[in-house]
Amino acid sequence: MGASYGSQSMVDPLRTVLVRRPDEAFAHADPKIWGYTGRPDLIAARTEHAALVEMLRSSGAEVWYHEEPQEARADAIFVHDPVLVTDRGAIVLRMGKELRRGEEASIADSLTKRGVPILGTLRSPATAEGGDLLWINHDRLAVGQGFRTNAEGLRQLKALLKPLGVRTEPVPLPFHTGPAACLHLMSLISLVDDGLAVVYPRLLPVPFWQRLQADGFDFIDVPDAEFDRMAPNVLAVAPRDCITLEGNPITQRRLEEAGCRVRTYRGNEISRKAEGGATCLTRPVLRARRTRAEA
Asked: What H or E segment, with its residue span, contains residue 225?
């Protein structure tokens, strides 16, 4: 019997993924409090989410639902952020956005009920969110350092991951529009294959770009006009097999020219209003690790 969890990759074939249906808390979110561009329509949001889930299933992934109560936590649909899943279990993070505190323990309970052990838990004053944590490869994790993930978060993650042979590397993030906005590392970059990344170069830190280039990475650049439409937020369900938000034709064409299969989902409610893309709406639990020959 194979492993039931382990996801130290952004691109290996997705086998198990956790999601959360849009609920009343999401529908009743005050846009000013939560930083949304408008109040979501729950019926439309559920329709969009169901279509996204069907894309995941058609990709060969088993879909788990996180259904633990999350009263008044509108952002709980973005299940990517509260935990990180490793080969030895989940690391429970600590949200930098204070309105989201409490999501972490809830999603940890949901995973443990499914048989995923807890490897460790971040403690105050550490903060770290999944959107800042990017697997460059199985043994290397880039950690965005900005308003959501702090230096103590990096330190505690480094200590938890060192026994697994994982090297962490800090990536300082730009100020951009300030602390009230959500700018994660993965707002600027997504991996779609080993050595291939979708990036928004205007905000990507130069030393990080240079390290990836030195490692042999090729880049698909997102144009300025598509950055605010979340074009850098691309979910790879397998190497060069992508799911991304509709409405970014230039980035989509560039992905396809690089040999990627691209499927788009409608996310007017679950993504555009709430500013979270396909990666944000999914927490990979198991990715099938490939051999060197397959990679």
From this structure: helix 224-227
